Fold each of these.
Amino acid sequence: MTAVSIKRLRSSVRGRPATNTNSFVAASAAVVGTLAAVAVANRYLAKKAERDNPPSGRFLKINGVRLHYVERGAGDPVVLLHGNGSMIQDFESSGLIDLLAKDKRVIVFDRPGFGHSERPRNVVWTPSAQAELIQLALVQLGISDAIVLGHSWGASVAVALALKYPDRVRGLVLASGYYYPTVRPDVVALSIPSVPVVGDILSYTLSPLLSRVIWPLMLKKIFGPRSVPEKFNAFPKEMALRPSQIRASAAESALMIPDAFMLRHQYADLKMPVVIIAGEQDKLIDIDTQSARLHADIIQSSFHRIAGNGHMIQQTATNQVMSAITEVAGRSSELAAAE
């Protein structure tokens, strides 16, 4: 091999790492730039969603948390707590608020991190922590006792509220809830956006995009076997796809199994009237291992299986949910009269 050839070979070898490094830096810069652009776009869409869907109710300031709520009607108070990823407009679009407001005082909260309510990150928002916040809100609103309905994750908050403050809860309606720990790989996947740093990056970049893609599939699962009712079109999808709400939803997914584990032996301590209601064909939660088991653990409870319905019974079986509230109200009145 000639001296010139050796020199060329050495020069080529020395140049390869620099070329690879430059390629890596360029690719990294392109990825970061793309993610930054996506984050800016998601931020714009989130702000637009909030402008297009301004608060419909009022706010309470509780322990530094700005809590949004809607109040309507007059009479005995009924509190509604929505599920994970949802907000006040779920109950609004279902028609349940209007039905109750005919002869009840209805209070509906955007739980922390959803709708227009804040979710400070210095608090782990377990059902117990949220129950404390709701209890303080009820004190400010002058409500000494109420019937409380919780749907899905909101049912866990309703249970925690009744366990911590039994004198403030006249009766419970627990709809499509998750009460006992089970193996749920899907929950692990849904929890990823709540992981510190990595989750923040995902929440503000890829997660909103992926959520838009899977939105129709998600609705098919939670509403199945029923089709999505036309009235649900009033639900503000873009509010649910904001990075902040995606992160809040992921955090609640991460808490779902541990919180069920913590509460699983306490249900028998509930002494107020309890009505459990669930769709027989719920594709999200197995009602036999959840609602039916809860019914067995709470002696004074009643359990209504809604045939031909899935997880979103407040939307697809609104009248049956209304009947469950009426049943609890009647039983609590009878109990009060007996005392």
Amino acid sequence: MDKSLNIIFFGTPEFATGVLETLHESHHNVVAVVTAVDKPAGRGRKLNESHVKQYAVSQGIPVLQPPNLKAPEFIEELESYRADLQVIVAFRMLPKVVWSMPALGTFNLHASLLPEYRGAAPINWAIINRDSITGVTTFFIDEKIDTGAIIDQLSCPIEADENVGSLYGKLMKLGSELSLKTVNDIAAGKITTQKQPLSGVLKEAPKLNAHNTTIDWNCNVEDVDALVRGLYPYPVAKAQLIQDKAETIKVYKTTIEVIAHKMKTGSIVIENDVIKVACKNGFLHIHELQLPNKKRMDSKSLLNGFQFLANARFDNGLQ
């Protein structure tokens, strides 16, 4: 059997849990897991445990939840596990004292084909930008974000109707495979690394915020639909509806109609129980949406009990 390594795993969301499970079920030994501190959530403000913590606890793996990654007591506890290697998936930036600790280094799994899409939301932006291919990358951590030497990559096609939910699942599976392969290759001493370019024009994956998740109806309809798919099921595209006042609605599911028209972008047409909104080169058909203080509904159900005012329109994004 190949050499077995002692691993400390850092991660928080479901995406990371898939990798943790694959490593835990391998011949390697996950000696501890580091994850986010429990946070209050919901109306009752009940403490919410991370997806990674829930899995680790269920498997009897020791869990560390340091509020401060530089705290001497955390560093001391981390050192006590004498890990050969550390694996990072969807976790915050580590101080050098942490990532430089193991003899075999610390590698990160990133959900893009680096150097493209460094940053917080690579899966979302690959869909929003209408890319046809993405993938996963393992790389050694260094002092900057997502810039370390690349160890290995696996690619994945992006389907025409792909959304974040479907691509997330594919990349989680691919990332689990690549992470285990990377650990095995490190254990066998047969990795080669490739430096990333630190200059040049590269696609970015910045954090999602109120501005970049709000629809601009002046865009081509294909780009608006890609934004909706790139934000579904989370955090969901927003649109500014103007009637008596401006209101923010959530747009969940759409299709497109590419057709020349002379309507002002943002204009609303109701046709066959579908809400159509004019874009630069056609109409976005909204099939599922949510009005303020209402539940998520399909357009037909919404139109049964709601009527847009004659002057209703969608505003062209946040200025």
Amino acid sequence: MTLFKLNPLAAACAAALSLSAGQALALTAFEAPDVDIYLSGASAPQNLLGEVANKLFDSSQGIFVYHDNNGSTNNFGDDGRSYRAYFGVVKADPSIKASLHGKKVLLVNRAKGGSVWGVNPVARAEAIATMKIDSASCTLNTGIYRCPEVGNDLTPTADNRVPDFGVSDVEPNMFKGPYNVEFGADQLDPTEAVVFDGTQFGASSLMMGIVATNAVPDTLPISRAEYGAMLSGLITDWGNVADGSISGPVAVCRRVQGSGTQASYNWFFNNFPCAQNSLHGTAASTPPARMADSAGYDSAHAGTSADPILIDPSAGYTVVENPSSGNVRDCLARAQSGTDHTFTGDDGKVYKVRFSLAPATKAIGVLSLDSLNSENGWSFRALDGAGRINPATDAFECTNADQLECGIAPTKANHREGRYDFAVELSFQYRNTTAGASALGGLKKDVADEFIELIGDPAVLSTLAAGPKEATIALPINYDPTTNSNVAKATHYGNTCAPLQKFF
């Protein structure tokens, strides 16, 4: 299959702004669409939604942009983290399916909760929370409509909506219990899993990264075995890392279960769910540590804004399970600066990590490389050795006198060649024809297919902002790496548990 062609969010926003300010629109913001389609799952496509809109929609008709308001009417800085949407008229372009020409399409994307929300609810046709887009609910701010979330994942309401297709950092088969399913849910059983047969599409490869706060010297060589042991709670003090040059409790800023990023780390460092114990039928791998494993975990609180559950990192080994990558970045920044980190977990409870009790905490994190250029008191580190990506220059640096201590740089050049192998292949999926009435079909299927084609196109990926662009590359199963430098030379062929194979 071919790949998606996307452009930065800013371009679509600028188009919407210039049109709304300078000319009459043929389309209005809240009229009924011909196709209203809902994509849920990983946050990676958010970086490309604007370019998809530009490629699909006729700008002369108007392109409207919608972000969730994150439950706040006054704070615009946190808009669009969980939901984004675009509304436009499809171009009459020969590269686009004729069935869609002139159709008014509303594409709603949910990134809340991470990748598993692009798998289980899609397969089961489960109605989940969404963003409400209408004139009574949304307000215009600098060219973008701010709209509320409606519905409830834990206690479904009439506002909930079934996602039409899903996206995940890894393929659906990786979301197994007990470590890779969301709060309060279980994995797909074999009869449920077949609804994706023939409708899974690999789009692009995304680099994952080892990160650490500035309190951890970038001259400290860290092996993948040591990093994995810290994630699992087998190493709880920095004094047990190879050269013993530093000490102090380890803190882990990780993602919640069900996150594709967390599933990627569970695979790479613990081989879950790839390793299976044939004698007992259970995972033969060490489980990732949880918040309740923290030495300073204090659950004797209501878990509300007024009375959050407390975690004291000064007490020792600490784990923080964050609901989004933005929360992980905030966790790392606050660990370094010594300011408290407050967030709402996937269980709906409020947590406060009291980093003010332990300034300059030596923390590691769980992030993909598309968080480059978001560093604030932390940096991406080398794999299996010393060195870091300098946040000021985006260049890899290793100043160790013994160059043998320098690790594998987390760069796109190494990713393309297969040398940096901590990367996953983005998967899109929808229900197939064996799933009866819930199968995706008609114009919705046509929109999904166009979207999937665009979002892995190397030309589209080259339009990403600097951080995501460095982290993402097209797959050789779709494009020829000998004719395009934005295509990887190695792939898992959509099977994370298979060896990485290089043929070019």
